[in-house]
């Protein structure tokens, strides 16, 4: 595909660098479309899954089985009046959802849709991921501060407290993955798990997987770690004052984060887009959606954890576990690697 | 609205926090203040330094209205005080009027009252269970308990014609007899509820997150609970086995076997356990009442012209605590004075000793654990 385009591009008399720019734009656009379609579907799926868990039907009215409900909701959000609170810091207030969305999309640069289909297979992929995921907290802080609302501010502060707790175990669990694969490149991590189920990292890395999954849920603000927005405590936390399209952007980015987190869980521990018979992209979707389902399952089952308990959990439980895992991984790599 | 000295002072105190402190208005429009409770919080980070409840957003002059209405006309107003436990509010009022007029209630009517009263307790506790779980972020438990509550409301609807505000008790009895098949309906429902309670237990009790959120939070000692005048599950959660159905048996409660669940630590978790246990006690009482249900009339002889003479205080154990009605009669058919004692109003005072020093997230759990109904607080 790329070669074909490259040929045409040369035929038109353009060079390599301009081709790279155009290809980057196309890939970026594809990722954005992928995320938007996913978010549309995930809102529907979340409502159906929660309905199933809670013994009710979920959306049923708009379209067959309520399939068009999200489209109707999105239309409503887009056409709503754009409200900026009078005391808000307008520039930051407008910028915050964009930063949040940018941070959510930036992760997708390194996520492998197939063994070769990566937007840009950075050789520092793991470091890039841990750097980019921290960015979303900045956006939440911006949103909370600029809203000029005390509940938003409290939500933003919670988010910062959450960041210093989950970031360390998360990065430590990624380090172990890097050691297993012997590379920070996500393409190599997938390649290392290519030879069937037995080569999946989840078996030697079961501790790492637990740490990654828990800290990861905290990172994407999913229940039971949805502290920054905690609607029953902080009304809606950092997005109390957001409505209409700006809120929709936050929402979209949150679902993009959920997909990214699930895709990363699949990539690091379950072989990513590799699998028999079906094309890699299908395997990628199957595995990703499995973890999305698990995250939803958890959300609709557990009560919300308290902010200081989350810090305790991360510092006293997850970090020691991650360190033990790191030591075990070193041993594993030396003995059987 | 004119500013009184008290509210002015409250405002003064509340709005002048120190440098590192933040004044936050929790309510009256907050998803977890169960209606229109307003809490004036001063917080340091998320830790609550001081707390003042502000009430009155749902005041509807119940007591004054009662003075200008004849006794039967007030019963529907009683429904609207504690709208989640309409039967018990009606009961306290009707009982007061009966005592002032010296009306005898037939045995069957008393049994029916006990049955609907305990059904009401179950319905109210089901709502409490759901909203309490919702406050803690467990959305699914909320929908589960509402499902069972709706099933119970179906029976209420068949019996009284209404789902929440029944207007069912009458001076000297109840409005209508049990319908054919009520006993079977009820037995089927109790069996269903027992099954579902296991499901609820699996969802929350023993859940690690739930326990850390509730244990040791919002502790109120036995002495404090008594000193503040707490009643109902809040008092029992602190370890005082006080239940008006046993301590001051009204109606025919002295004929039934049931226990008084008591908590140990006076924290949110103890109150949770007490209320969950009360489901089982209510089931026990209803089963016994259905078994011994006597025949006969469901409405006693009541003088056509009701005359209230003297004064009386009657109290019943509502799902929230001691609901009392103080009624003074001057010989006419309208009470000279009617005072309604609301347990939730008393429990609101407890918020300060319970909540100060805890986080905002705990405040939500504490408010949920005292099971507040603003309609009853403001009346």
Set out the fold topology.
The complex is a heterodimer of chains A (337) and B (379).
Chain A: H1 2-11, H2 16-53, H3 69-78, H4 90-106, H5 125-146, H6 150-181, H7 186-192, H8 206-219, H9 244-269, H10 280-299, H11 307-336
Helix pairs in contact in A: 2-3, 2-9, 3-9, 4-5, 4-9, 5-6, 6-8, 6-11, 8-9, 8-11, 9-10
Chain B: H1 5-14, E1 22-26, E2 38-44, E3 47-54, H2 62-67, H3 71-79, H4 86-101, H5 107-135, H6 139-160, E4 169-170, E5 173-174, H7 182-203, H8 208-214, H9 222-228, H10 232-237, H11 244-247, H12 268-292, E6 309-318, E7 321-330, E8 335-341, H13 343-355, H14 360-369, H15 374-378
Antiparallel strand pairs in B: 1-2, 2-3, 4-5, 6-7, 7-8
Helix pairs in contact in B: 3-4, 4-5, 5-6, 5-12, 5-14, 6-7, 7-12
Question: Could you explain the architecture of this structure?
Answer:
The complex is a heterodimer of chains A (337) and B (379). Chain A is mainly α and 337 residues long. Chain A is 67% helix and 0% strand. Chain A is built from 11 helices and no strands. The longest helix of chain A is centred in the first third of the chain and has 38 residues, at 16-53. Chain A is globular. In chain B, the strands form 3 sheets. Chain B has a 3-stranded antiparallel beta sheet. In chain B, strands 6-7-8 form a 3-stranded antiparallel beta sheet. A two-stranded antiparallel ribbon of chain B has the order 4-5. Chain B has a single domain, classed as Cytochrome-c3 Hydrogenase, chain B, CATH 1.10.645. The longest helix of chain B has 29 residues, at 107-135. In chain B, a hairpin with a 2-residue loop joins strand 4 and strand 5. Chain B has helices spanning 5-14, 62-67, 71-79, 86-101, 107-135, 139-160, 182-203, 208-214, 222-228, 232-237, 244-247, 268-292, 343-355, 360-369, 374-378; strands at residues 22-26, 38-44, 47-54, 169-170, 173-174, 309-318, 321-330, 335-341. Chain B contains 15 helices and 8 strands. Chains A and B meet through helix 6 and helix 11 of A and helix 5, helix 6, helix 8 and helix 14 of B.
